Amino acid sequence: MKKLTFIFLGCISALLISSQSFAETTMSQEGQYIFNSLGFYLGGVLVAFMAAGFCMLESGLVTTKSVSTIAAKNIGKFAICSIIFFLVGYNLAYGVPEGGYVGSFSIWTDSSDTGTGYSGYSDWFFQTMFVCATASIVSGAVAERIKIWPFFIFAAIMAGVIYPISMGWQWGGGWLATSGFSDFAGSTLVHACGGAAALAGIIVLGAREGRFGRRGEKKSMQPFAASSIPLVTLGTFLLWFGWFGFNGFSQLAMGTFDDVNAISKIAVNTHLAGAAGTVTGAALTRLIGGKTDIVMMLNGALAGLVAITAEPLTPGPITAMIIGSIGAVIMYFGTKMLESYGLDDVVGAIPVHMFAGIFGTLVVPFTNSDTSFGAQLIGVISVCIFSFVLSYITFSSLKSTVGLRISKAAEKLGTDKAEIGVSAYSIRD
To answer: What are the start-end ranges of the E strands in 323-418?
Structure first.
């Protein structure tokens, strides 16, 4: 018995000594390099799943005669944005001189070294997924009436010029970074940037045929039946799951206790903001319309996630839920406002990403004392105006040259038959 007691006490002592040693041990530079690079890789994989989420959501919300086109647009955009960001976008964003405006028009090259703290390859992979997400925001808004190849051209310009330049102002160490602007994971730099581009696109394109009442009449929106609500729901879940990589690994490090704890807190706040947005969307539609609108629930979730993205670390969980809820409210009334002006946003991309993204960025000073409302406002205005103006010029140029919108006959027939030649859904006798 005494021997067993001594053995037990010896084991306890060994554990205590080893735990103390572990607590006092700092990970080596090489160890931090490995874990940081692994974090970039895992985060990039999660964000890559958001491409599938955007595709499913967009495919579900369009009519059945346009689903194949949506699939082609999304896989094509994913590939094109990746290639363009490699050729020019990355160095344009991260080659910005301190406090400057534009980086270099050059091909990305690896600069991996243990001194940098992470693999250059993993960083490029992670950052590329962000530009793909930005272009996806535009895709949903302009669906069902834009020609596929002009859209591909726009996606290339978004990935190669619009997004990298404005993103470099902050994340590349440019003038917004030195002015005190803060946008942790991209409520403005990704979401509002994409939303502003989408707004330009739907203005230039015009609404789908039959969507609104004739000119001179009171604007009345005609509902178009979605092809698949379960598909929209699947897309929303995929986006929600991808957000844990989008926000969590924007910590950009996983080699210390503080970094891993921050990633964990970000995941909690992100999740709760999305949950609060979902419930708010359900409650609003029940109270105002008498029925619980599933689409508003789904977009409420996304609006909550967008709103918390600008600062998912500093708020407490309760504050994160409040931010998510307000984001959903803004999304709901923003959707109604666009409809009142006869602006046809097929998936609600502008209220979700631009309106909720602006809100999320402007409320950062309430939880992060290192920034100010003035700096946040300047950042929001500059990024949104830059994206809107360049996108408007691009869409207008495409419209006057190669053509932007399909014909009325093609729109009536459906983009699947007119643009792709493959129907997404077929019924056998």
So the answer is: none
Question: For residue 368, which phi and psi values (nearest 5 degrees)?
Answer: -120, 105
Whether the Cβ atoms of residue 122 and residue 258 lie closer than 8 Å to each other: no
Instruction: Tell me how many degrees the CA angle 366-178-81 measures, rounded to the nearest 5.
Output: 90
DSSP state of 215: T
| Strand stretches in 257-415, DSSP E | none
- Nearest alpha carbon to residue 133 among 57, 58, 53: 53
Among 394, 388, 352, 350, which residue's Cα sits nearest to residue 152? 394
Report long-range pairs for 230-233 (Cβ below 8 Å, ≥24 apart): 230/60, 231/56, 231/57, 231/59, 231/60, 232/56, 232/57, 232/60, 232/61, 232/294, 232/295, 232/298, 233/60, 233/294, 233/298
More confident residue, 152 or 31: 152
Closest CA to 219 of 231, 207, 229: 207
Report, in angstroms and rounded to the nearest whole number, the Rg of the chain calculated over CA atoms: 23
Give the separation between CA 313 and CA 266, rounded to whole angstroms. 5
Residue whose entry in the numeric block shows the structure tokens 């950062």: 364
**161: nearest Cα among 186, 121, 197:** 197
Using DSSP's 3-state secondary structure scheme, residue 357 falls into: helix
Strand extents, DSSP E, 163-313? none
C-alpha distances in Å from residue 85, one per residue of 124, 135, 394? 9, 12, 18
Domains parsed from the chain with CATH numbers: 34-420 (1.10.3430.10)
CA atoms in the 13 A half-sphere facing the CB of 124 = 21
Count Cβ atoms below 10 Å from residue 228 Cβ, excluding itself: 18
- With b for 16 or more beta-carbon neighbours within 10 A and e for fewer, the 396-415 pattern comes to ebbeeeeebbbeeeebeebb
Question: Given this model, what pLDDT does residue 15 score?
Answer: 38
**Mean predicted lDDT score pLDDT of the chain:** 91
Going by C-alpha positions, the residue among 275, 272, 270, 268 that lies closest to residue 300 is 275
Q: CA torsion angle for 68, 246, 229, 410 (degrees, to 10)? A: -30
What's the whole-model pTM score? Answer: 0.91
pLDDT per position as a tens digit, 154-198:
999 999 999 999 999 999 999 999 999 999 999 999 999 999 999
Largest CA distance in the chain: 97
